[in-house]
Hints:
Layout: H1 2-68, H2 78-91, H3 106-109, E1 110-116, E2 121-124, E3 140-147, E4 155-156, E5 167-168, E6 170-182, E7 187-189, E8 192-195, E9 198-204, E10 223-224, E11 228-231, E12 234-237, E13 241-243, E14 257-259, E15 263-265, E16 269-271, E17 293-295, E18 300-304, E19 313-317, E20 320-322, E21 327-331, E22 334-338, E23 342-344, E24 347-350, E25 359-363, E26 368-373, E27 378-392, E28 397-409, E29 411-417, E30 424-431
Parallel strand pairs: 7-10, 7-28, 8-11, 8-28, 9-12, 9-29, 10-13, 11-14, 12-15, 13-16, 17-20, 18-21, 19-22, 20-23, 21-24, 22-25, 23-26, 25-27, 26-27, 27-28, 28-29
Antiparallel strand pairs: 1-2, 1-3, 3-6, 4-5, 6-30
Amino acid sequence: MRHARSLRGRRRRALAPRRGMSALYIALFFLLLLGFVALGVDMGRLRLATAQLQIGADAGALAGVSAMTDSSFDFEDRPDEAVARAVGTAESNVCLAPSGGIDLLDNEDVEFGTWNAADRVFTPFDLGSSGFDLRRAANAIRVSARRLASRNNPIPMSFAAAVGIFSSDRDRNAVCFYRGGRSGFGIVGIDFIRMTGNTVIDSYNGATETYPGADGPNANGHVATNGNIELVGTVDINGDAHWGANPGDGDGYDEYFDANSNVTVTGDVTPLMEDLNFPLESVPSGVVNQGDLRLNNNQSLTLTGSNDPLNPTNYWYNDFVCRGGSTLIIDGYIKLWVSGNLDIAGHVQNNVPGNASQFQISLVNPNTTVDIRGTSDISCHLYAPGSEVKISGTPGFYGSVIGKSLTILGTSNIHYDESQTVTDTPYESALVK
Length: 433
């Protein structure tokens, strides 16, 4: 009997530490269970918060772009309206309501820039790099919705606080781009446009009026390029300014809009929807080449044309040069074909002043030059998609100009003849990122 009692005592002493270990295992299990609960509940909160931030950012970006295409606002007012709409729309959404919301900082969370569709890259503008309001040169807006500890509004944790995790940062962004507007232009430098000095660009309708018209000049002096627009000096563009459609596409051009504080553009300032394409023309068969033309001081030449604007009389020269002091008279409707270089510094006289359709000029070869300068007006439609075009010191250029590049120097006024075709396409926008 003594032996049996001794055995039961030893068993009780052996079970005591096992019961202590079980309590420890149960405590650890509950801690682990608490961790899983915390993970499940708080991860669910974070997922919900992230989704709600994304909804706010998407709505803000779409609202911002809607202002950039809203014709009820002047072009210069649209960027400010875009910021107001983006912020107001994003903040009208909730993030873990009723305890939290979405708060945007105007100068940080709404960014203007360019969207490269080929690479799917948004490049924000450095708004301090130009005196011109570069926001108008954007084709995309990025809106960021943030809940951050640095802003004193992180996502608070519930169960995770028991293990020392009290909050988490979350931010989402959305990019919306737009395109549309002008798709036909009368003032073009395919590779680039550069203007220096004092330049004024506006428009009139040569089919119905002489410049400036009964109500003054029109604001359809639209300029466009596949490359860069660089405006230096005092430049007034009464119309749109559109630059390269594909920034960073590897074509050798950076595609940017650069302007100083003395530049005014009354219309839209955005990248093109797609690259411009202007093929070279060919001299019609049967037109006789007359070699080089060189008019020197006090010399004059009259080109006599038809009375039908749809069937002008054709003239073909290699180099066509009118020196200062010379006079070129355009009598009737003329189509001048030039296979070399064009240099006009003398006086060009149309028998119907300001009627650009009287005098059409087409340069048919690449790697040629056009130099129009001097102190007299010139009225013509110039088509030179393979030529470097320079206009300098011309008090009045009436018509249209299309060149491989376009450089305007000194005091030059360009008056686009709207009777040439200019078209509009509807604006469209889309969330892209």
